[in-house]
């Protein structure tokens, strides 16, 4: 079973979120994958309570604060996100790191907060184009991974990793299946060194970066790729379900 996750970013308010779920039709293959949607926080309740939402589509929050409550105007705590219907939390998405200046230390705090309240963190890592050109892919993604690994043991709790090269996000540029496999192997080897072989083998590593129906089958078929995190192409229910159907 592959994991097909859709990150709506700052798109689809509550009314459009309901429309998405009303328009989402899953064939048998799509429905047999693990399906996640990350709506904007303001649309979470509408998504969670939408009578048209296929219950097999689980929900997550795109961003969380590490404190449970307090004077943090504009932020969302994990207990609030969970109460609104989230079971997963994106952490360290490249737009959080690069547009909002989130540090590895803050990403680690957010992972800790998600785990305190039993949300499954989806930890995103990825290099910029400059870092790729300087041959620093492994160094960068391992630094980002190492920052959060202390939160996990050989057995628990569950987390997902997403390799999202920054240069491929929202740009139409896609990593080749070989690029994705190479980065995923690097991450899995680190999981093996730190958390052991069994845990490394069962930790899903998703690829993200301009995934669409036309390239989903090749990316999902690549070695070490356990699923995809989809931005732009997840806004349309037809293309989201086509990507899910492309999983083997
Ligand atoms: C994302 O937002 O995580 C993403 C991968 O975006 P896109 O598919 O639009 O590149």
Residue-averaged pLDDT = 97
Q: How far from one another are the termini?
A: 8 Å
Order of helices and strands: EHHEHEHEHHEHHEHHEHEH
Question: How do the strands line up in the largest sheet?
Answer: 1-2-3-4-5-6-7-8
Instruction: Find the count of extended strands (DSSP E, 2+ residues).
Output: 8
Helix and strand arrangement:
Blueprint: E1 3-7, H1 14-23, H2 28-31, E2 34-38, H3 44-49, E3 57-61, H4 78-84, E4 88-91, H5 94-98, H6 104-116, E5 120-125, H7 129-133, H8 137-149, E6 160-163, H9 177-195, H10 197-202, E7 205-208, H11 213-220, E8 227-230, H12 237-245
Parallel strand pairs: 1-2, 1-8, 2-3, 3-4, 4-5, 5-6, 6-7, 7-8
Helix pairs in contact: 6-8, 8-9, 11-12
Description:
The protein has twelve helices and eight strands. The chain is α/β, with parallel strands linked by helices and 248 residues long. Strands 1-2-3-4-5-6-7-8 form an eight-stranded parallel β-barrel, surrounded by five helices. α4 links the parallel β3 (57-61) and β4. α6 (104-116) packs parallel to α8. The longest helix is centred in the C-terminal third of the chain and has 19 residues, at 177-195. 43% of the residues are buried. Bound molecules: phosphoenolpyruvate. Phosphoenolpyruvate binds at residues 7, 9, 164, 169-170, 208-211, 229-233.
